[in-house]
Amino acid sequence: MRLLVAALASELQAFPETLDGFDRLVTGPGKLKAAYGLTRALDATAYEEIVVVGTAGGVDPALPGGVYEVTAAIQHDVQDLDGVIGQHVSLPPRVATGRDGLVIATGDSFVDDVAVVERIRGLGGVLIDMETYAYVWVADQFGVPIRVLRAISDTAQDGATTVWDETVAACSVQLRERIRDEYRV
């Protein structure tokens, strides 16, 4: 059995309520809710794979819209005791999925600011979200393979919040098609 995970129910709106071979989990937005929800699910049931779907901001202007696989996650909203942005005082600076793909920068705020986007680019992030780092870290703690698929919903700049509200449905359709194609469900 696999676990299909999203932060928000709206990211799953194009998916049927039940999907053969998958349990479903909606954690809520942000790193703490993501970590808590996924930890509870993995503590209760053994899964062969976690498949995360959802939206992400695209911070590389050359990257076209679509669905992308994530290879690694960094945190853009932490700093260590020396003030180094992206370095946590006790967590690894980067967690990996073991799959080929793009680097996503995770933080606990919805980014719609050009200056923050530039900082994220400087850290090596190509996509941005609010949960992936936590999902990947928790999956690693439990030794469960994880796959993260993110559909670009906005450019994480001025007006991104409004754009996200308008595009989440289309992103859900793209993600549903990808899951259907790759998992035959």
UniProtKB/TrEMBL annotation:
InterPro entries: Nucleoside_phosphorylase_d (IPR000845), Nucleoside_phosphorylase_sf (IPR035994). It comes from the Bacteria. Residues 103-178 form the Nucleoside phosphorylase domain. Coiled coil: none annotated. Pfam families: PNP_UDP_1. Signal peptide: none annotated. This is 5'-methylthioadenosine/S-adenosylhomocysteine nucleosidase. It comes from Microbacterium panaciterrae.
